[in-house]
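Step 1: inspect the first sequence and its tokens.
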Amino acid sequence: MIRIYATFQLLLVSLCISNVALAAPALPEWTHTRRNLILKWDLAADKATLAHSQKGAVMWQGSLLPSFWYENLRKEKKYSKAVVQSAVKEGDKLTVALQWPGLGKGRLVVENGETGWRFTELSAEWTAFTPKILEMYLGASMVNGANVHPTWDRPFMPDWQSFGYCVPGAKAGTVQSYFRSWDFGHTTIALGNFGPSMGTPYGAAFPRPVLFAGMGSDDGWITIGAGSVPDAAMSLKIQSTRGCLQFLYREDLWGPPKGKIRIWKDLARIAIDTTARESFGRYYASFPEVAKSNSGESLRKQTASIWNTWGMWRFKKYPIRPIADFMEKMHNEVMVLDDPWESSQGSGVPDLKKFPDFYEDIAYIRKKGVEVGVWETIGWIKDTAACGLGKKDLILDKNGKPCMANWNFDPQGDAYYCMDFSSERTKKFLWDRTVRIMKDIRPRVIKLDFGYGLPSPDMGAPRDPALRGERHTFALMQQIAKAAKSVDPGVVIMGYGISPLWVPLTDLVSLDDQGDLWFDLHRGHQEWSVWASLLGGYGVAISGSSCYDWALDDGILLNSVILGSPGAVLPSEMAENAPVPRQFMNRRLAVNLWHRRTAQWEPRWYNSNTGNMQGPPELKCWGRLEGGGNLTALVLRELRPGEAQTGGNSVENISWTGKWALISQDNASIAKSGQVAVIPFAPGYISFFTQNRPTKIIRRNIDGEFAADQWTWADGKLTITVSEEEFRNTAGYLVHTQP
């Protein structure tokens, strides 16, 4: 691998992508630096490079000027790439005059800020005719001097070169985010809301949309992503090791917008850093933080522990009250009624045949002090006639027939019609349906699903060009969120996408039900947790969710301690109606009771790593920092020889055996907290500093509270020991250190 890597670095230094550029006066230098990295853009040649300033190694290179694959008036498909006519640099702003041969002229405005480059505006003025754009590209050029010609029916090719790529959750079953350049072959990786309909490897809800991709090597990474919600379907397109961003329009099928001038606001943002995760973090930092409510009550509801009925309903076991009775033992705060609670998908009306006591069941749940949530599709609709929708309100295919979709786009699978937000009647239906649900059921949470399951532009598109591409799902979700909050501003909108562009719409992001992680659940959940943590600074609560298997739950719960909000889609019984072991329920109870109630934080990795070209992300010991650096939650897994700071198991002056979670119950750090929860995830002991000698320690399990006696305090350190038998009968300990 070292030899391959070194050879690849030499190739990157020696190779360049040929671009046809018109003669132009001397153009200003455009650079951005971060740590030991420098990003340069030669405008005349349209060649950008990311290099290490000391080693000289080139981690990434390619072009950045936009190009179009379009259809002309004779229905011929043509390619035109922008060439620079002139460029003016004014401080941190660069204005580039462009020409697209055969199409027209335009300009690109680029800003160089603290977090990187921002393509704030791209404008095009068509001269002879308005082209029908099939695809727009960043990072594509004409093929010149190729030794190998892959199967590619275009006269141009992607030209971004790097040793590796990183796209969070690009592949599922099992999850993979890091790839060497030659691992992809010829691949489309949907970065937005279009999954299987784009021919991309299947991946369900989380983490779509991401709307960015990383490229580089272990010396440095570049992230290129959208700066605003694209009016096209956005993908990372890989062709024989080389990549580009593709924006799929297919205006040959659906027609272009009117007018000779076209403008793209905030087309792209570019960031660099030494790791892929930190490079992503710089991209996120280019977006302003969206203010979330700071009131304790609203945050409590935003970060609530959620139990989802899908754990039983996936087996077609629909009685609600037994699930509520079971859930009560673990003190969950919200019970979400999942699919299929509706009379038909998307109707917003309860199925009183399947649930004849629906409203009585909801009252039964609330009598337990538990709030209710509902599942809803973002764009699917089954019984259009019953919902008052007709052909003009739906996405149509190229033959003018209503376009249907499903989760995996199985041609013969059960499918649903797709609403077109271009229709005023669709807008009104979504608003009225949501308001009715809010007033009729009064949900605390609305779980929005299947935004990734809409037809791609190859299949169908909204009639209004301004609502096409990634904007369609955004518009649908925005309408639902606005309608819900018009009735109850405190309602929690739960989604799955981690794009910073979705932050204004989302109060709670869930890691889904882990079905896509398949047989490698713990590693996959660790990887997903690393990517979810990118939202930590934006006031969006994160639910760790669960898998379907109680025996694997503890590994997922450990990560949920740091993420914040525990969620579950677990069954309320084992195989053949056997009861769930109390040991499993105890761990859920502890995290439900004591999880963090705040939504803004940042991770501390300790001996964990966020992945690189040598391996995927791996979480071992990691923590949650809040309020300027207070360590409010900490997960401790067994260390390997040589990993500890001072020998043995030692992190933050804590020694332990087994696996543990510590959670501050106020906003102070664990060592200074007036109350700290201590949760064992295996038999063993833990010893850590506390501000004062504990005034009392409560042991908790599903049967209640008891005074704990298996602890000592000496030299400022509290030691708690848990035997095998005690572990099976203990949820956790609440340590009080204030009088």
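Step 2: inspect the second sequence and its tokens, then contrast the two.
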Amino acid sequence: MAEAQQASSLLSSDGAEVELTSPVWQEIYLSGLRSWKRHLWRVWNDFLTGVLPASPLSWLFLFSAIQLAWFLQLDPSLGLMEKIKELLPDWGGQHYQLRGLLAAALFASCLWGALIFTLHVALRLLLSHHGWLLEPHGTMSSPTKTWLALVRIFSGRHPRLFSFQRALPRQPVPTPQESVRKYLESVRPVLGDDAFDRAAALASDFLRLQAPRLQRYLRLKSWCASNYVSDWWEEFVYLRSRGSLLVNSNYYLMDFLYVTPTPLQAARAGNAAHALLLYRHLLNQQEIPPTLLMGMRPLCSAQFERIFNTTRVPGLEKDYLRHVQDSRHVAVLHRGRFFRVGTHFSNDLLSPRALEQQFQQILDDPSPACPLEEHLAALTAAPRSMWAQARESVKTHAATALEAVEGAAFFVSLDSEPAGLTREDPAASLDAYAHALLAGRGDDRWFDKSFTLIVFSNGKLGLSVEHSWADCPVSGHMWEFTLATDCFQLGYAADGHCKGQPDPTLPQPQRLQWDLPEQLQPSISLALRGAKILSGNIDCHVFPFPHFGKNFIKSCHVSSDSFIQLVLQLAHFRDRGQFCLTYESAMTRLFLEGRTETVRCCTREACHFVRAMEDKEKTDQQRLALFRVAMDKHRALLKAAMSGQGTDRHLFALYIMSRFLHMPSPFLTQVQSQQWPLSTSQIPVQQVHMFDIHNYPDYVSSGGGFGPASDHGYGIAYIFTGENMITFHISSKKSSTETDSQRLGRHIEDALLDVATLFQTGQHLKSRFRALGGNLGYRHGFLSNKPVDPKVPTNSTNF
């Protein structure tokens, strides 16, 4: 993902450091100003839900109780209301009762505000506790149970999406000594003795010379801004990156793996678009429950604010995110032609059948694309400075059409080709499906939009997501809702169409007109050529591992994420014959406006385990003991990252601060210029209750993937599909002679079995594997035997 490619955003193409000319005091002031603007924007939400665990009705109850006590000749204010009455104007001795009501209202408001403030402080103190993260896997101590009970009490009964925002603690700033120590520990397995000694010497000089001053300024920024690193992370890793968004800053999410609820393209687009708009409505009404770890610990919801109506606008030096409060249309691309489709009619949201009708009219429209319109979208895949220059010309000559696209709720691409799993060639078809979602043809996506809904000609779905506005768990949450709503709530008629009847009174989709000058043709051609090169260079490989999943790993009493990460270390070592820096994304949404942190998975403990697996003289008992040590180390790193004690984001913020202060640091430059040959991420399943995996085991999300973080590296995403399968998404570059996505996939399959057989409950797996002839997954026809297009369940299950 783009976050694993931060060096390309911070260093120029020739490796020189980019100078930042703004005064550091101005930058700190602007960070604080941006934070306060976001606070003020949520004023109405704060009134409705920011007083959690109380509500506006609680004020009315308190005021009524005070009035009742006053009627019973009791004074709960201990004389304060009389003092307040004396301060109020007497209006000539009239309206005595009105003065009493005003005094009671003022006293009730002050008391209510004091109580709410006390509850907020108490909840923030409770949420600042992270001891529960450090407990052994699968256990919960009595103090943690007590802490969870208190969190539940202070969280109120019905929190809304943004209810906890005021109570979330700020992300702490680690000490430079601790961050440097962890960094040196992480690079020791991949550096030779001489290289490590040089790195240690640079680190020592940094701690002695630059670190104290940089840390002081960074702490000052942490006091002014909501989060000391997230605004810089968004700006410098994403918005200042001048490379193409294609592959570098987008990722994809897949449809169901084995089922396509309807083969009708327009019908599937209608249901999916309607489900997305329903999600937006729930989001606007804050009726989406906040994400809770362990069912009680809330995560920050700030990233949900920009899911819809958001576009990344290119600039010469940096981009910016444009978000409009409301949009009542979507932009549609089909065969190089752009359309505007309204989402409301007579102030009501269009039904799925009405949206299908609109999409079908676009599919049936025989008009050809204009010469400059056909490949116009390729400009969004061009280097950002080039697109910024071309966009000025587009805006001058076709401002209305450009506004219709950039101001849309989201973008829809109606592809003319089918996609998804096929019985004839399941392996190649899945790989082609992933490639179509990640890269496409280069001119069939508007990469600037927050996300693009992709609907293929056979009814298969997918999502292409721009990364700067939020991270995968947020878009994944929306995508789970969309898939579940599409199948289990909306459904389809027997003929495959959306339920309901067409509406002949609906206006037709509006064809967008691009009156573009011929001078734009060279830019479009150049952008298209570059996009096709990027697209053609990506090697995608998707495979489900059907022999075991989360259930088996749980039965081994180990962490599922740590299990997979150690498997990936073993597979990569077998693939490349060496260890490398490994990036795993961990969320920091335990804190206000937190985003991600890096877990450096290639530890000394992991290397010892991998070497033991390759040493024929080692016994399984010895290997298992080393596995448990390596797993404990990984879990400790993951928990430190989640609790704000990671390494990379702190060193990144110190580096940015050094650029503002014009204090070059060779150590920080070396840290930021490092490559990540192995970039990994787990796609979380967050709403299991929406899917009935027991009655409909094939109706589960198959996850998604992203591009590699380096020219000679791999990008690996994985998702626990149901309880007994793991789906992997691997990417690499075809131009590299060192990588091969299919080859690494085979190594991952072998490593999964080899690690599983270390446990007694998994020793039967290898014998079953041999009985199948040494083949797994679709390599033995597993996928080709699955039903590809079963009927959609007609009744709601656990939705």
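Step 3: confirm your contrast with the notes below.
The longest helix spans residues 96-127. DSSP finds 26 helices and 20 strands in the chain.
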